[in-house]
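Quick one from the shared queue. A colleague (R.T.) flagged Pentatricopeptide repeat-containing protein as missing a structural entry in our internal table.

Convert sequence to structure tokens.
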Amino acid sequence: MIIRVPLPQLSVSRYVSPFSFLPFKFFCSDPNPPLNNDVDTVYRVITSSTSSKHLTQSLKSTGIFLSNDLIDKVIKRVRFSHGNPLQAFEFFNYTGKRTGFYHTAFSLDTMLYVLGRSRRFDKIWEVLIDIKRKDPSLITPRTMQVVLARIAKVCSVRETVENFWKFKKLVSEFDISCFNALLRTLCQERSMKDARNVYHSLKHDFRPNLQTFNILLSGWKSSEEAEGFFEEMKELGVKPDVVSYNCLVDVYCKGREMDKAYRVVEKMRDEELWPDVITYTSIIGGLGLVGQPDKARDVLKEMKEHGCYPDVAAYNAAIRNYTIAKRLGDAYSLMDEMDRKGLNPNATTYNLFFRVFYWLNDLSCSWSLYQRMMYSGCLPNTQSCMFLIRLFRKHEQVEMALRLWKDMVEKGFGSYTLVSDVLFDLLCDMGKLVEAEKCFLEMIEKGHKPSNVSFKRIKVLMELANKHEAIKNLIEKMSVFGCSIQLSGGSQNHKETLDLDSLTVNHVRTN
């Protein structure tokens, strides 16, 4: 590996935001092109519908032709804006019942994901049975993985496997690709131990292939266990490929065993399996874990010498190393280098900085970074929003919080549920009842249910202000979700949480 003299470290205490001297108009420009009008219109119809009949009438009144492409985009919008799953389900059913119309595999899988996220498993099987009747080719191993992943999150391994066997009556070929979908689900949603046990109990019903072993290799956390399974793979006559070796490199890098990782890379070259961008990204992440961020940065240059060019994930891994070391000047330098090379920083890139600013309690740099993010056209994700809204609450910055909320409502990013709880806490603490009521209603109009805790806080302020009609209006609006509001006592049974300190090398790679 190439080793260079480390660049001078930039102290956090002397760090000045590179955005501080930009003209004000830089931050005021609208970064996003206008949204597709038809998609926006249909999405608003869905989120404002109160019944199947109302939805049907409203969609017909728009005069918009509901093509496959438009439906794909609308359902995708529902997914990423955390829209109401039952409203989306009504839309999916309505469009699917038209004579001669067939949903795309994308629409099907996305709809199943939305239903699964809200644990509407009865609706999932209803959709699958209907699709089986109309176009069974749409039900693929990918579909299986979408469904099983949501089930595995809340059910036992036994129940997950039982649901796996249900697909035998739904898919055209219940073969090794389906078994691989189950194993991948267990690796991602349960544990490697669960996946290994299921593999050994069912491997005689299927013929394991290279993909089977690669899925299982990618789930190991212990290098000893990975090595043992790697040997088993070769004993069964399955020849490792680049993916197989990448899994081994990744395990070594995460375990800070860099010498072993380098030896695997050399073995790959000896077998004429050339390391790819994923191999190098693992190396970059591993070097960061052993405290060598400058050497990791040099890997970005070394990659090019071997004909492999860094992607966004590779740069994110290198940037992460510098943010952990609090060398923000070097981190920003890499992000600027990405821009110059035509690689647009994504939400993960920005979150690496947001995380540092959040723990440093640096409101100014967080706000400047958010403005740069919006100007560049990169929409924040839920994690970005949570870093920001919690910092705004700490500093009691109502205007900034409302600006973030306004952008979320207009551009459809982030989790309304998570952000709104913190937002309503801030607004209620500051006595901003008018603003709280407005945001509350906007959330409902978007098809998202505010938490009972938030409702109770706003209700208390309204009672003090003698706004009884407003309270009645909110209760009526909430009725669309088909649940009653407990006005006193009790506690919130379920509340989503987000670990703001969960940025790992794996997160960087997958984003």
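The two ends are 26 Å apart (CA to CA).
Residues 288-345 form one domain.
Added to the table.
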